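= Protein in question =
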Amino acid sequence: MRDLDKYIDSRKSRDIEFSENFNTVYENFKIGILLKQLREKSGYTQEELANKLDTKKSAISRIENHAEDIRLSTLEKYARVLGMKLHISLANN
């Protein structure tokens, strides 16, 4: 097991709040990273993407770094500008 995995497991066992929130926070983090990678792969800077979405660079930064509060309509526009379609699925835990 990697050191990070060991740390996370240890922290979960000691901190109930951390344990309860970890999966949600981690999923939000992954969404932000994915959006950043897609933007970079498409060759856009945050400012260029912001202009195409009629918003500010700070909004793109906030989406990429704090994706927990992103609206579906924003995700759809983000995907469309990058030449993609948004697909959402729900699954049992």
Q: What stands out?
A: The domain at 3-81 is CATH 1.10.260.40 (434 Repressor (Amino-terminal Domain)). The first helix runs from residue 3 to 14.
